[in-house]
User: What shape does this take?
Amino acid sequence: MKLPPGISERDFSQATDRMRDIVGKDWLFTSDEDVLLYRDAYSPFLGEPEEYIPSGAVAPNSVEQVQEIVRIANRFKLPLWPVSAGRNLGYGGSAPRLSGTLVLDLKRMNRVLEVNEKLAYAVLEPGVSYFELYRYLREHKLKVWLDCPDPGWGSVIGNALEHGLGSTPYRDHFDAHCGMEVVLANGELMRTGMGALPNAPTWNTFKYGFGPFISAIFGQSNFGIVTKMGMHLMPEPEAAQSVSISVPRREDLIPFVDIMAELTNRRIVDCLWEIASPILQSRDPEVSSLLAKSDFTVLDVENLGRAKSLGYWGTRLWFYGPPKIIDANWGYVQERLALIPGATFALADRFTFPLADPSLAKDDPMTVPNGDALRLSALGIPNMSVFALGAAMRQHGHIFFSPVIPMSAQDLFKAEEVFRGAFKTLGIPWFGLQPFAWYRRNFILLFIFPITEEVSANKVLRANLAKLIRIAADNGWSEYRAPLVLMDDVMNTMSFNHFALPRFLEKIKDAVDPNGILAPGKSGIWPKSLRKVRP
Ligand code: ADP
Assistant: This one.
């Protein structure tokens, strides 16, 4: 068993004995086979002694039990790593950053406390998964949608706290949250926003409350344990329409992104969209043989694209609402983008709600054909089909590198040049950019690297990822979220004015958690006793 630094076996067993008394003997786990379940299945340290491994886990069933556990943890200075569903794969799963930390598994606290259909919000406990909330909404025939990421087994609260994302107008999950209940590091219970006012009916409708908007500091942090959260939901639309757009030339990216950015900021387009390249991503044999040549030109690609009716760039959008508003928005989007010569527009699926075809609503992963994940998520239906992609690629796991750049074609071209060059220097095969417009005004460039069972390859990958973070930072770009292994690397790039921001976060940490018991190392924020000197 791995114990946290400075904790003796005796203290550990005394602390866990007391916690067992609180939660019952079935809900405190320290055996190797139980701990295995809390290890990161996609760990980039697979088979290496440095793997981040918890000492065990404790699974409370109530806020009072969480408070008691936190008090015991303080007494013994035993660090806790809260997880809601613990499915944060690609970012660390349920594993802690510091080996020996005890996982505080909140999965048992999975009650949907309230859904207000009229004002379209839910109040949830941390263990509620997207599947569970979806089932609740359907069983109660409530005309509200959740917005889910892929896959749907994670928790609504854990994903929102990690700044996770989905695909509908409610895709920014942290932005959609409203009002938290938090167990602080000293065991005290606090409510944020209007929740600070006893019995306020606006706790889950008005986010800011009075004074500083303090909920923000509990996202991607280690300042508290969230035990309840309000979540704004989308009123069920009358219809959803999927469309696709393409433009023929590489240089068209400039007006295309300019117009799309404006339409997105005006919320005429209000969905996740991605910049794809129908021609470069085509599996057509003629395209593959052209791209395999060493001397093909952009013009060759554009000409072949024209011949094959494949755009150089393309995207897919979803519109939601009454059909006449969908048609008006789509008409306006076409009018604007038609300024680009050769732009093409196509209507794809249209669904009306409530869904007439119940088979579409099935959330059984086995019945969802590969590739439909996007469609289901866009319709607010949690699913697991994204895993079919990993299985098809026969990967052991993956890890994300996800820098954020401004939403402009000039920045995309620059990022392409910078990262293509970096990949070449680092000996990584270039697989192109995958820019996602999750947030308005920005693209997230999602790079997904495979984790293998080969120790040497994982070592190289870790070193390469650290270098990519540095290269990105040298160009002014950082990530929206980072896996455990890279959290320090990312925080160490935040160096404006002698690391003023990381130092401020450490001050908060020391003030609210003097014993350093909450998630040491989360987002590169370490308690005093474990802090290293900044570079
Ligand atoms: P998911 O719901 O996607 O499975 P996790 O439960 O793994 O996500 O949570 C992701 C991360 O968010 C955790 O590693 C932890 O750092 C943080 N987190 C999750 N739930 C809570 C919570 N209730 N309170 C504080 N932090 C949390």
